[in-house]
Specification:
single chain, 2 helices, binds zinc ion, alpha+beta, two-stranded antiparallel sheet
């Protein structure tokens, strides 16, 4: 699992000179801040990444006692 999600497609926000946003959900990068759960719930990128996270979780040996800070966001 990646600590930060910054490889989503970005586009420039016309009204702001140095501001960018996610191409899919149009949320500014300053709001997303590298966190998957800050994308819109129906964001294409978020959906894609969530699939990989679930896949990785299946492949890895599961640690029951590990406190996942964002586990409540998954479902
Ligand atoms: Zn997005």
């Amino acid at each position: 699992m990646k600590p930060f999600y910054i490889d989503y497609p970005q586009e420039k926000i016309e009204e702001h000179q140095h501001a960018y946003r996610c191409m899919y959900c149009k949320i500014p990068t300053t709001v997303i801040f590298g966190l998957l759960e800050n994308h819109a719930e129906d964001c294409t990128y978020r959906k894609q990444q969530s699939k990989w996270v679930q896949l990785e979780a299946k492949l890895k040996p599961h640690n029951e006692h590990f406190d996942e800070p964002h586990a409540d966001e998954v479902d």
